[in-house]
Amino acid sequence: GAGVSQSPSNKVTEKGKDVELRCDPISGHTALYWYRQSLGQGLEFLIYFQGNSAPDKSGLPSDRFSAERTGGSVSTLTIQRTQQEDSAVYLCASSRSTGTYEQYFGPGTRLTVT
Amino acid sequence: ELKVEQNPLFLSMQEGKNYTIYCNYSTTSDRLYWYRQDPGKSLESLFVLLSNGAVKQEGRLMASLDTKARLSTLHITAAVHDLSATYFCAVDISNQFYFGTGTSLTVIP
Description:
The structure holds 2 protein chains of 2 kinds. In chain A, 0% of the residues lie in helices and 48% in strands. By secondary structure, chain A is an all-beta fold. In chain A, the strands form 2 sheets. In chain A, strands 2, 4, 5, 8, 9 and 10 form a 6-stranded mixed β-sheet that branches. In chain B, the strands form 2 sheets. In chain B, strands 2, 4, 5, 9, 10 and 11 form a 6-stranded mixed β-sheet that branches. In chain B, strands 1-3-8-7-6 form a 5-stranded antiparallel β-sheet, with no helix packed on it. The model of chain B has no long low-confidence stretch (mean pLDDT 94).
């Protein structure tokens, strides 16, 4: 079946603008994760959703970052008032549930803040 | 603060040789994952290790977990060029994933 998809694949934005990144998980996967990968910080966990439960937001780097997941499926990561240090590849992954199940990663969104 | 350390960071090895990548972590966890990332690509799940003493093998790669030593290893047997990639380990603490720095592997003919 279809894998995890993310859009856009690339996004260039000006400092101070808001951006929205989208993730479509694999159908039937209840767990969804967002990560950020950058040269300086490596791979960072941002947030995860399990079904319709309230997300664990403890990994979000600042209050400019927020995420939601509608209907337990599609997720949107929003970054407000983007800064240059937000430039990174944002990866989304889904799994059948949390804990013991392997994660399937999307191709990522490369965000460049100029 | 949880630390996940991999070594080596860079590994250049000849085809046909064996080598081991190490992943040490600083807090208790019995869930350890290994991923592969090709240049410009996303991550691919390799192994999920869920208990002390767990060992999993796929082709030329074998992963093990020692939760008491807080150590996981990824052993490469008779390396081939197709294994060239960056390998990450990740520790799962209450569904938050902490990644190692990655090991960039280059297999030389």
